[in-house]
Structures are given as C-alpha cells and as structure tokens.
Amino acid sequence: MLKKGLRALLWFEKGVLVAGLLGLALMAFVEVISRYFLNYSFTWFEEFSRYFCVFLTFLGASLGVKYGTHFCMDFVVTRVGDRAGHIMRLTTSLIAACLFSLVSWMAFEHALKLKKFGTTSAAMSLPMFWAYLPIGVFSVTLCIRFLLQGILHGRGFLKNEPLDMPIGVEEKRTSP
Questions:
Q1: Coil, strand or helix at 127
Q2: Other beta carbons less than 10 A from residue 65's beta carbon
Q3: Most buried among 23, 129, 148, 160, using CB within 10 Å?
Q4: Sign of the alpha-carbon torsion through 3, 65, 145, 153
C-alpha cells in the first residue's frame, strides 16, 4: 500500500512538473504575442512566472534527487572500493538532508513571518507567504529523499553490495 501511494505521489509530481513547464511556456508565448502585436502586457504575468519558477525548480530538484540526475563530484567515489563509496555517499546524503531540513525550517519560519505581517505581492496582491511556502514544502521532500538515499547506501555498505555508477560514468572497475 505504501509503495502504491509513493508511486501515485511520484506520478502526481511528474504530472505537475510537466504541466507546469508547458503552462509556463504557453503563458510566456501568449504574453509575448500580446505585448508585440496587441501592445498589451499582463501586469501579473512576470510576478506569477517568477514565483511559479521557484515552485517548479524545487519540485524538479526533488525529482532530480530521486533519479540521481544532479551533477556530482564523483571522481574519488568512483575510484575507491564499493564499501568506501557507500560510506562517502551515505555521508553526503546525510549532510544534504541536514542542509535541506535547515532550509525547510528557515523557509517555513520566513513564510510565517510574512503571514503575520500580511505582506502581499505588488501585481497580484497574493499573500507573500504563499510564494515562500513551496521552498519549505519541497525542501522537506528533498530532505526525505536524501535520507532515503542515505539508508540505501547504508544498506549497501552493510551488505557489501556493488556501488551503482552515476549516470554518464561508463568505465568498469573492480572492487579491491
């Protein structure tokens, strides 16, 4: 049941990301056409697109952690043994999880301050805490995904499993 729920969540995340990027591109196209051919500009679009890009960036970052598509400095990790590589990746996953738990806490704290002060955006009159809330929410998902990666590398270390190579590393190596 948990796996089914996680699969549904992943499907939802991917759908929101794809629909969001396509919607943003379509709205930008309409804005450009409107500005240059009708001499009319939507005042809210620039502000909305900025906030929505932050939302999509953090959502995409969370999915990037799940699939391991973020860039990484893996020169050393790919040249040491499997057990040492698991320890290195476990360590970096835990550090990243701590970092994003801190980012999440600070983002929620900032959003609560903005809500308390009643700050709104200039063009849309959107309460500003809504613009900062996705940073906290997706930082939590980033933290969870880094923790899950850490657990996988901890298991890999304990079971002496081979270290999976990151995308783009095609050389074969033998474990010492």
A1: strand
A2: 22
A3: 129
A4: positive
- CB contact at 8 A, 142 and 62: yes
* pLDDT bracket for residue 9 (50, 70, 90): confident
**Nearest-angstrom CA–CA distance, 18 and 12:** 10
pLDDT band at 174 (very low <50, low <70, confident <90, very high): very low
CA R_g for the chain? 21
Q: Is 105 exposed, middle or buried (0-12, 13-18, 19+ CB in 10 A)?
A: middle
Report the C-alpha gap between 152 and 98 in whole angstroms. Answer: 17
Q: Give the C-alpha separation, 5 to 71, whole Å.
A: 28
Site of tokens 């500005």 = 35
In the chain, domain spans? 2-158
Spatial contact of 170 and 93, defined as CB atoms under 8 Å apart: no
pLDDT of amino acid 32: 92
